[in-house]
Each structure stands twice: as C-alpha cells, then as structure tokens.
Amino acid sequence: MKIGMIGLGRMGKNMADRLRTGGHQVVGYDISPESGRDVDSLQALVDSLEAPRAIWVMVPAGKPIESTLDQLGDLLDRGDLVIDGGNTRFTQDQAHAKALGAKGIGLVDVGTSNGIWGRENGYALMVGGSDEDVARIQPILDTLKPEGEFGLVHAGGTGAGHYAKMVHNGIEYGMMQSLAEGYAVLEASDLIQEPDEVVQSWRKGSVIQSWLLDLLAKSLQEDPHLAHIAGKAEETGETKWMIGDALELGVPTPAITSALYARQSSQIQDPMTMKAVSALRNAFGGHPIVKE
After folding, report:
1. From CA 278, how far away is CA 248, in angstroms rounded?
2. Whose CA is closest to 108, among 142, 84, 78?
3. Which residues span the domain enclosing 178?
4. Cα dihedral 250→251→255→258 (10° resolution)
5. What SMART domains does the record point to (predicted)?
6. 24-65 pLDDT tens trace
7. How many CB atoms lie within 10 A of CB 260?
8. Does residue 172 lie in a domain region?
9. Is residue 290 domain-resident?
10. Residue 292 placed within a domain
C-alpha cells in the first residue's frame, strides 16, 4: 500500500521505516530538511500520491496538528483519508472529522504506543473511526502492530482511539509512579544494601514483573542509583484530560491523580521517585531527561 507520512520525528520516522520494511511505499514529509524527508512541502506530498489518498500524520497535538489538518483540508480531494496518529484530544477528533467530512475527506484517529521500541517490536494501536475507513488502512495497521493476537483494537467511532490512548497513558502514570516510589523506599532504607539488585531480582517470578520493571532495571544498570538523573519528570496533557473526564463520569482515579501531582511537584523538588520516573520515560519513549 502507498501512504504519506507527515512528521518524521522520533515516532514518525520509525513507523515509516517499519512500513517500508513490511513492503509498503511511504512518502515522508517533515518541516525539517534534516529529517530525511522525501518531499519538501505538503503540496508535493499530496501530488506524489494517487487518489484516493491515505496520509498518516504524526505531529504534536495543539497548533501543529490544527495547522496540518487545516492545510490538508484545502489540498486533499473527496474520498481521501487522513490518519491522526498523534496525541490529539478526543473531543478535537470529532471537530476535525466534522470539518474534513464536509469536504468529503475521512478521518481515523489512532492512539499509538511503544515509543522508540516500536520499529522492531511493533506498536500498540488504538483506532477510532468508521468501519469503512479503518478497513481501508488495515494493511498498514497490520504491519505496524506487533506480531500475534494482540496490539490492535478498533475501539469505536471517531475519537475512540485517542480516548483509549488517553486512558492508557493515565494507567502508565500510575504504574511508573508505583515502581518509582518503591525504588525510592529501597534507596532510603538503611537495611537494604543494594537496592538496584533488589529491583533486578523482581524481574522473574514476581507478581510485579513487567516490561516497565525491566526498563527500570536496565536504567539502574546503566546509571547505578540513578546518580546522574535529575528528579524532574514532565507531564503530558493526556492524563489531565483523563482525570477531567473521569470526574465528569463519576469514576474515582486517586492513584493516577496522585501520579500527576507528583510530576507537577517534581518541577519544584528533586525526589528520587522522579529520578526513576524520568529514567523510565527515557527508556520506553526516548523522552529527554535532565542530567545532574
């Protein structure tokens, strides 16, 4: 299948590479000339694809995605399809779908997870949109997902993919915070001689064994006691959105809310827990860390 890819950053470039390895033809565009792009403008990207076109967009939420979709709305033809693989708020998906739909252009939203590991191992894909539009890009989704039964879900209509990813990221916050707090207690205890070795021991046979635990252990091997990482971890908008929607739904989320507050507090403090969270964010997603 031939597809356009807008945004060749940490995620977009790896996704394009996985698609090419899987036999698809990808035409890539990025605003940066150093990105390895195939074309140097959105117009050139559209011109390089035969109708009906499919274009996957991997740019940040907010102004970048708004601007990109506005431009695509003017450049694309009826029957074309846009896939938003970023972290757009689900309510905005619905507004985007309405605006594009008025021009006969479809929209599929795809929540995407697995960061820098996805190129080799595949991405968890949470998809929102009509059955017809999702079916059109099924070969692309099948190539991007991990091998095996799981890793791909058509979660519902427009906005459902990003809603599922929003909840996913909230859960991620809570899980990382629990691991980080546990490690901080080990570090503070006079009874524990080697807290890094304790974490290593939990990787097999333990109820809490997990990929995140493996990543924490790997980070501790590379930087014992996380001595060179500052205890600051940024927060993303998605967990705020999830907590807000949970309040509207009457669903308590105390663990996830506490994890969000901890990240906010890390901007004015420097606790061990945030050293561990920062290390985990870098390990699974390539997010930058502040060095000490």
Report:
1. 30
2. 84
3. 165-285
4. -20
5. 6PGD
6. 999 999 999 999 999 999 999 999 999 999 999 999 988 999
7. 21
8. yes
9. no
10. no
Tokens in use for 52?
């009906």
- Please report the sign of the dihedral spanned by the C-alpha atoms of residue 93, residue 88, residue 84, residue 164: negative
Pair (280, 185) in one structural domain: yes
Tell me the whole-structure pTM to 2 decimals: 0.87
Residues 16, 107 within the same domain = yes
* Amino acid found at 276: A
Can you tell me the distance from the alpha carbon of 134 to that of 108, in angstroms, rounded to the nearest whole number?
7
Task: Tell me the two tokens of residue 115.
Answer: 């960061």
CB distance 187 to 195 below 8 Å: yes
Whether 67 and 149 map to the same domain: the answer is: yes
Q: What is the H or E stretch that residue 39 is in? A: none
Specify the residue for token string 């076109």: 53
- 28 by Cβ neighbours in 10 Å (0-12 / 13-18 / 19+) ranks as buried
3-state helix, strand, coil in the chain (%, to 5): 55, 15, 35
What's the structural domain count of the chain? Answer: 2
Q: Quick check: 243 and 170 in contact, CB under 8 A?
A: yes
Choose among 185, 199, 189, 79: nearest CA to 136: 79
pLDDT, tens only, 149-183? 899 999 999 999 999 999 999 999 999 999 999 99
Angle between helical axes of 237-249 and 160-188 (0-180°, round to 10): 110
